[in-house]
Amino acid sequence: MTTNEWVIPFYRKQFEWLRDIESDMTSYLQKDAEKIEEQIGIKFKTMLDIGAGIGSIARALDIRGISMTTLELVPDLVEASRLRSPETIDIHMGDFYTYTFSTQFDVVSYFDGFGIGSDNDQLALLKRMRSWMKDDGFALIDIYNPNYWRTIAAGHKMKIDDAERIYSFDEENCRMIDSWWHNKNPDDVVTQSLCCYAVDEISAMCEKAGLTITGIFPGGAMDFDKWAYTETAPLSSCLSYRIKLRKTI
């Protein structure tokens, strides 16, 4: 089992076009770190973040005294993470479908990226995340909400720095489609495709993996008519929601 072919080209280009954006996100990242601690609800010491990108959230949690381990596939992002991160963060490069760890963690997270492969791929990943959790540990995963991508985002364009993007929705496969290009080269398009799940669908998949949802936290949403972003939207209309998981007893 390997990660979809689009993953490395997409995230490499996204990083290239947005490489200076993190400096503008310090306050947001600290708020997100606080939110993660609130969502877990108890003190925890160790955390594994997969699909960790350039390690932004790991650094925000490291400052708060959490012993962070990261796993990322794209070499460019891993290199950037190593350049920007303190030695206290344990950084790994590899595919989360095949990579192994010799230890377990209090928390295992996957933010802003779940849904890369097929349903079977997602189920296999959930089982792997379960194996990385301590018996009394938790997982936090962001799940894309099909209603938002189907009825709100599809067809809309956005500009970010020198890049542009357009959203669409694959109804047959229930996947959000996010296509990017540089404004100087609009024919060179990279696209990510992530499967979206309603709460009952992801709950059933988690049960098959031996995991139980113990918390649901709605995320934000973009109002394209007002061109305004709301940090917390209703579950029915948020772009993604975060689930908190424990091992099924």
UniProtKB/TrEMBL annotation:
Example of a GO biological process term: methylation
UniProt keyword Oxidoreductase present: no
Transmembrane segments: none
Keyword Repeat set for record: no
Assigned keywords, A-Z: Methyltransferase, Transferase
Domain of life, per lineage: Bacteria
Any one Pfam family match given in the protein's UniProt record, by short name: Methyltransf_23
A GO molecular function held by the record: methyltransferase activity
SUPFAM superfamilies, per the entry: S-adenosyl-L-methionine-dependent methyltransferases (SSF53335)
Family matches, as InterPro entries: SAM-dependent_MTases_sf
Name listed for the protein in its UniProt record: N-methyltransferase
Biological source species: Sporosarcina luteola
